[in-house]
Amino acid sequence: MSPEALSLWLSPPVLGLLGLCIGSFLNVVVHRLPRMMERDWWTDFAEQLSDGELFKRCFGHEPSKALQTTATELAKEVDGLGTYGLSKPRSACPACGHQIAWHENIPVFGWLRLRGRCSACKTKISPRYPLLELLTGALFAAAGWRFGAQPVALLWCALLAALVALAAIDWDTTMLPDSITLPLLWAGVAAASLGWTVPLGSAVWGAIVGYLSLWSVYKLYKAATGKEGMGYGDFKLLAALGAWLGWQAILPIILMSSVIGAVVGITMKFTSGLRQGGYVPFGPFLAGGGVVVVLAGTERVLGWIGQVGQ
């Protein structure tokens, strides 16, 4: 591809349009992936309950008839749900089951054309769908501006898309799926080994430092309070960010995520938006800190706190 064509196809406006389309897919991922995980858990649970020998090894006795009946009914119920994945079944209105037509699924414009309501039953469609599409489009455009018209910009767009999906899923469910965090971690190491991002040694140590830093905080907090302050998904996410950005980025990511978390937490407190128990998942703020460091750069973020020159 000629430099002129590359400059066009990887320009911020074109990447922004690509981001809108990817954002539409991320809406599907955010909605369906947790449900796919829950379905897998129930399937495994039913299989373990129905395996009398496994139950006996774990608990020292045969499962009761009531448990075996429950396992059988659960297995039948899960099997009766049919195929459910990221591509099937087709997207439909949760209120009336109306299958969404292709023209209704155009990023942002489809929602605006429908005026935020289902075309069949007029149930309100959450504005979060177009907002997530706009956010992804804006981040892709920003990556094009930050990294220029070169193929590596697509790598950073992929990282940003994964961070958007993880932030939204964790906000909804307090889960950071291994099916995203672990591939993201290994992709960061692979990209470094190919010379596309940071030096390989920095990526490996970034993964190690990222994981162990939050793991240490988790252990200390649990020892002091007897409570779990965060989940293992947070460790894996910071390890993945360290693999992409290097160990030098760990402190800036943590600092930026803390600032973002404090602003959001204070806002939610004054607007009565805190959930029962007053907790807020940390994953979205880690993802936000990662986004800031990706787009601003490690040295610039450190410069904001007076550590190095901008």
Give an overview in words.
- This protein has about 300 residues and is mostly helical.
- The chain is built from 13 helices and no strands.
- Helix 2 packs across helix 7 and helix 6 runs parallel beside helix 12.
- The longest helix has about 40 residues.
- The radius of gyration is 22 Å and the shape is globular.
- The relative contact order is 0.10.
- The model has no long low-confidence stretch (mean pLDDT about 85).
Topology:
Layout: H1 3-9, H2 12-50, H3 52-59, H4 65-79, H5 109-113, H6 128-147, H7 152-173, H8 178-193, H9 200-225, H10 232-245, H11 250-270, H12 283-296, H13 298-304
Helix pairs in contact: 2-4, 2-6, 2-7, 6-7, 6-12, 7-8, 7-12, 8-9, 8-10, 9-10, 10-12, 11-12, 12-13
Largest sheet, if any?
none
Q: Determine the fraction of residues in helical runs and give it as a percent range.
A: 55-70%
Q: From the helix content, strand content and strand pairing, which structural class follows?
A: mainly alpha
Over the alpha carbons, how many angstroms does the gyration radius reach?
A: 22 Å
Number of strands: 0
Question: Which key phrases capture this entry?
Answer:
single chain, 310 residues, 13 helices
Could you provide a short overview of the structure?
The chain contains 13 helices and no strands. The mean pLDDT is 87. The protein has 310 residues and is mostly helical.
